[in-house]
Amino acid sequence: MINDVMETMTAGQDRYFVWDYNEKSDILNIHRRGKKVEGSAELSDFSFDFDKNSNIVGIELVYASEFLNHVGVQKEHLAELKSAEITVSKRADYAIVWIKLSIPGKNENTIVEKKLPIPVPVVA
Questions:
Q1: pTM, whole model, 2 decimals?
Q2: Which domain holds residue 19?
């Protein structure tokens, strides 16, 4: 059972972010490296993680391939994810969370970057 889960897991990290994707459960996680999570909030198929200053430091996306399909990201792409990051742009009563994914292109030397915004209401 553990081997089945590990065989379908893609994980990585860079200087600022850690990410993992489980092909079997279709869940994508992206988190800022070294940031402690103090709380979480769910919004539909998303779960946002916050630090002690209420900054968004992570995101979990359930049914990731279904959500990302409309921007051309398939389950196979997520299984070969090269990098992932989030950027948060705060406004007065909402925030926009940008997800940036680097996936393999049509040939093995090409990396395609996909960026998509997710509006998030801010509750004080």
A1: 0.84
A2: 2-121
Total count of domains within the chain: 1
Q: Report helix, strand or coil for 100.
A: strand
Strands 39-43, 46-50: pairing is antiparallel
Alpha-carbon separation of residue 83 from 41, 54, 69, 93, 98 (angstroms): 24, 25, 18, 30, 14
Q: Give the sheet arrangement for strand 46-50, strand by strand.
A: 9-13, 17-22, 27-32, 56-62, 46-50, 39-43
Q: Other C-beta atoms within 10 Å of 56: how many?
A: 20
pLDDT tens sequence for the chain (124 residues): 444 445 588 899 999 999 999 999 999 999 999 999 999 999 889 999 999 998 899 999 999 999 888 888 889 889 988 889 999 888 878 888 888 888 877 666 566 677 767 777 665 4
